[in-house]
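Hi R.,

Here's the chain you asked about this morning:
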Amino acid sequence: MSQITNEMTAKFAEAFKENNKHNALARSVIKNGISASAENFETQANNVPVFSVDLATGKVANQKQSGRCWMFAALNTFRHKMLNSFKLKDFELSQNYTFFWDKYEKANYFYENVLATADQELTSRKVAFLMQTPQQDGGQWDMIVSIFQKYGVVPKSVMPESSNSSNSRDLNNYLNKLLRKDAVTLRSLVAEGKADEEIQKAKEDMLQNVFNFLAMSLGTPPTEFDFEYRDEDKNYHLDQHLTPQSFFEKYVGVNLDDYVSIINAPTADKPYNKSYTVEMLGNVVGGKDVKYLNVDMATFKKLAIAQLEDGESVWFGCDVGQSSTRESGIMALDAFDVNDLFDINFTMTKAERLDFGESLMTHAMVLTGVDIVDGQSTKWKVENSWGEKVGDNGFFVASDEWMDEYTYQIVVRKEFLTPEQLAAFEAEPTVLAPWDPMGALA
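And the predicted structure, written out as tokens:
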């Protein structure tokens, strides 16, 4: 290994001192910070929030201090449909309700993975992966589908937010403590050669503790309720004795099996037009498997546009922290000119960022519009879940080039796929490792 010598550092320091441009820029960066010094205000003028396809969606929601974006995004797509179908105003579905059942199911999914890997050493990569984060707030589209199909949904008025759903740090901290402690017990039972019945009984006792913990932290999910509302025409409605499942069927009315996940991962290990799944990625044991079809970016955007033009918003996953301005709500490659600021080239290809850990899916939102000029998409309207105080009343603008580089997943109806694409999706998927970037949770 080659060490840094004092002479080498002195040479670097002298070269920096003699460069007047570097010294002038240093004064700005030191005082104002990197992002503020590199921000390009012309980007706002190039990404005006006006779109040729612009769906009506109502006000944005706010996930607050939690990682439930994937859940909010899915519920928002349903909310858009309900606002139009039932003339609702300022209506939301309960994110706390789906949060409860996701945590509960993730606990069982963790326990089952602990048992499945109990014959492996603690130092194995799979066991270490499990113990690093037994569960978290994030998820994938197919995971929320599993929750919807098993537990349905309820209006937010029936199970409103709690302190721990709006700020989930403590909940996750103590739930993960409990799950790791239970992992010790489960692995010990397997090592002692205990019968499967005894192990499952122990797991059932653990799940009772998890349920108790969640019920005290988030509230107990309703099993029956009345839906009472007044529509935009001031008409009063009362629908009694609903269950979460019957409410979903009657008011959401979406066949979730009609939707597929499409990804763009231009890495050598993931050829296009093939399906993929991720080992140990899920929440509901016996629920829907996470599955993707990988396509090139032109096809990816074409599918998203088809659904938007058909009047339906699009759930999508991206790396939201890359080249985006929270306050103005602009996501564009030239939002910050860090290369010019430091006179250093930070640029990598999309494939390189995925392969070398520089980027992955970190956030899910909803595409609610697109601007098409001369047959080409130029910018996209994005409904975020960070409240109305960011962006344009909570809505962001993504440049078309930003979409190319930092968007990884969309969910669209099967009907927009060609027969060849649908056959590729339905084929036996390639199984990716648990730590593959396409297994990232939004």
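The radius of gyration is 24 Å.

Let me know if you need anything else.
M.
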